[in-house]
Amino acid sequence: MINANGKTEFWEKSFVEKQEMWGFEPSNSAILVKDFFLEKSVKNILIPGIGYGRNAQIFKDNGIAVTGIEISQTAIEMARKHYGTALTIYHGSVTDMPFDNSLYDGIFCYALIHLLNRVERKKLIADCYNQLMDNGYMVFTAISKEAPTYGKGKFLSKDRYEIFGGVKMFFYDRKSITEEFSKVGLFEIKEVIENYPFFLIKCRKIR
């Protein structure tokens, strides 16, 4: 069963084993976004679905303040253990955003949005946009239809399948990215390789 943050109950129970698989090095996307945020003088960011923090440390190491949202208490405790208490992490689902009244220079949402249904994706995009400062940037990563898992498993709806024993995943292409992000300042779609082909989706809030 998928919870509102798109993570399975099994994921919560076997977190230590999963953590060993992911490791502690930042994702390729986090490295690219760190460089982008530094170029744009971003000083404080929000990371919805921060997990145990492997994609947060690279921002902190470069002088960027990080706030996170995470539904797994186990993940939060692990983040505290490995990265200290400098991270502000709200315990809850991203579908319950916002957790504070702060506005952020940047938002980085890694490998989360494709785990949500259409209504949840729309809300997450809007909630993130609403927490951006004027001229702020938000960057999402989302799995591509070029991934070998596309079209596998149980068909749920157009481009959405249930795979990996219960994970419901929406696979993006440039058309669906444009449809979902065009009204929130979409200005670049870039391909990036993680464990699967991903898209890096960049938006800017211009008021």
Distance between the termini: 40 Å
How confident is the prediction overall: mean pLDDT?
89
Contiguous helical run count: 7
> Which stretches are low in confidence, meaning pLDDT under 50 for 5 or more residues running?
1-18
Radius of gyration based on Cα positions: 16 Å
Task: Write a structural description.
The chain has helices at 9-13, 15-22, 28-39, 57-60, 73-83, 118-130, 174-181; strands at 44-48, 65-70, 88-91, 104-109, 132-143, 154-157, 160-163, 167-170, 186-193, 197-204. The N and C termini lie far apart (40 Å). It is α/β, with parallel strands linked by helices. It has a seven-stranded mixed β-sheet with strand order 3-2-1-4-5-10-9, with helices on both faces. Helix content is 29%, strand content 29%.
Key words describing this protein structure:
207 residues; alpha/beta; three-stranded antiparallel β-sheet; 10 strands
Summarize the structure.
The protein is of the alpha/beta class. The chain is built from 7 helices and 10 strands. The chain is globular, with a radius of gyration of 16 Å.
What topology emerges from the helices and strands here?
Layout: H1 9-13, H2 15-22, H3 28-39, E1 44-48, H4 57-60, E2 65-70, H5 73-83, E3 88-91, E4 104-109, H6 118-130, E5 132-143, E6 154-157, E7 160-163, E8 167-170, H7 174-181, E9 186-193, E10 197-204
Parallel strand pairs: 1-2, 1-4, 2-3, 4-5
Antiparallel strand pairs: 5-10, 6-7, 7-8, 9-10
